[in-house]
Each structure stands twice: as C-alpha cells, then as structure tokens.
Amino acid sequence: MPTDRLSAALASGAALLPPEGVILLLNPVDPGALAALPRDRLRAVQPVRPDHDALAAAGFAVTPLVPDDRFTGAVVFLPRSRAAARMAVARAVRLAAGGPVVVDGQKTDGIDAMLRDLRTRGRVGEVLSKAHGKTFTLAPDPGADWTAWEAAGQPVAVGDGLLTAAGAFSADGPDPASVALASALPARLSGRVADLGAGWGYLSRAILTRPEVTELHLVEADHAVLDLARLGLAHDPRARFHWADATRFADAQGFDAVVTNPPFHRGRTTDPDLGRAFIRAAARLLRPSGALFLVANRHLPYEAALAEAFAEVADLDPGHRGPFKLIRASRPRPPARR
Fold first, then answer.
1. What is the Cα Rg of the chain in Å?
2. How far apart (Å, rounded) are the C-alpha atoms in residues 187 and 332?
3. Which pLDDT score is estimated for 127?
4. Domain 156-332's class?
5. What SS3 class is residue 158?
6. Which residues contact 179 (CB under 8 A, 6 or more apart)?
7. d(C-alpha 225, C-alpha 202), whole Å
8. What percent of the chain has pLDDT over 70?
9. How many CA atoms lie within 13 A of 35 on its CB side?
C-alpha cells in the first residue's frame, strides 16, 4: 500500500485502533506504511520470507505464523486472493475478540467487494479512498458467523497426497508450466537436487519419483505454502524443507541438479528480473558437473542471463512447441566479480 494511506486514515478517523493493548497486523509488506502505528504494541504476521525479513530489519516484532493469542485490535492488509482475504479478516475478527478491525487494500486486490461484504457483517465507519485503494474500520457484528470465511483458506487435496490452498501460487491445481517441466525431466535425475520456489510441491513430487535422487531440498519463500509441501511430502525421508528466499539461499555442499519454475511477477507487475535472479542462484548453488532444469513462458527474456551464468544452454525438449520454453543449462560459470 502507499506509505501514507494508513497514516491518513488514522488522522481522519477512518482507521480506529484501541489506545492500549497489542495490535495484530496481518500481511503487512511495507515497513514505511506502518510508521504512524505504535510500534511497541504491534505483532506482525508475514509468512513471505523477504517481506518478513524487511519488517524484522526495520525493528518490528514479526512472525510467519498466525498466533493463537488475543489482541485488542487488528489491521488486515488484503492479499490478492478473495478466499485468502476472507480468511484473514475472519481470523482478525476472532483474534481481536470484539475489538476494531482495520482493513486496507487496493482496488486490484478486491477492496471494494470486501467493503460491500463487510457492511453486511458489522458496522463500517468512515472510508478513506486514496491512491487506488481504501482503508476503513469494521466493528464486527457479534452475531455474525465467520466460520465459512475462515475455512475458505484451509488446505485442499489435489491428488497424490499433495495439498494447495487459497493464496498459494496455482491454488486450483498444478500450474501448466510445472506440468510441462515435470514431464520433460530426465529419468536418471540423481544425487542432491534443489527445487527453487518449490511452492506446494508439484515439481518436487515428480523429482522424488526418481530413485537415484538422494536428497531433495525444497526452497520456498512463503511459510504457509511450504507447510503445504511439508504435509504432502514429509513421508519421503529424502525431502528437506527450507523457508528461504531462493535468490539468497546458500548450501555449502552444492547440488547435482536444480529444478525451477521461477516467479516472474511482483504483485501484478511482470518482473523478469525475478527469474534472472533464480538463474543466477541456480548457477551459484550447482556443483561444476550439475545442471539447471528450468521452465518459463516463451516471452520472458532469460537468454542473456542463462548465457552469462552457464557455458552450455539447450532445449530440454526440442520437440516442445507449447507456450513454455524448457531449458537445460550446464557448466555453471563462476559469479562475475563486481
């Protein structure tokens, strides 16, 4: 959210918070947006590792898990998923135990629909509209039933023991790009393997069907999504789970293979630099004899990054003519000196 909208809402009375007690923050991203809040009374929940670490570095008390404590009030920053947003608001209502719940979100994140829904579930005060978004305070109706809203974000089975949930990437089932890469992976994949940006584990499941894989390290930035993978794959002793930013993940032993379907969005904005950062991370993590197996939408300009990071780059499936490019890159180059 813009850094001044919550401050303006507090100044205008659109955001009403209790004068004492601990305040719950759900899904805050920008530390600057919290400047007007009483920092010593805040408890932030942020499951995405880079955002979590930025809040911690700015001095906020932050955890990746929603606590089962009681708070005097809450602030919810809407996620993009409608079901995940409903779950967040319902949790805030429950944990705030009758206290005010401030809701903030962009139009592109569904704040207008949320406002309409919440007007049927309590009293909504002044609404501040600013910078393509809204902030308002809900006084929840004590008789409203929030059970279905909170259950909207619970895990859903997608087959083969795997689980997904609202708010996860590809929440309705396997992403077509991951399906294409899974079908193109070599049968003799072996040794130590890393799945960068593992999500809820679809590609990892495919990797673990290779008996010569001795260890599989799932690296995922979203703590909640990694927990889904853990539930779906924890029965396989070769699986290791890392809550980490894949672009900064470190491993002293090195990997024989890295598999990835890297993200290429920041919010709703296409950002190929994310995929390029995954490519550089893969080259850094691989042993000299290791290989990267990558899938990407055909329009994404990764060729220069691949050529810079690897001495050999080839089509993993030369006959594939779908919307994705399937890449095998080997002979990782040493990182360029800055």
1. 22
2. 22
3. 97
4. alpha beta
5. strand
6. 202
7. 12
8. 96
9. 10
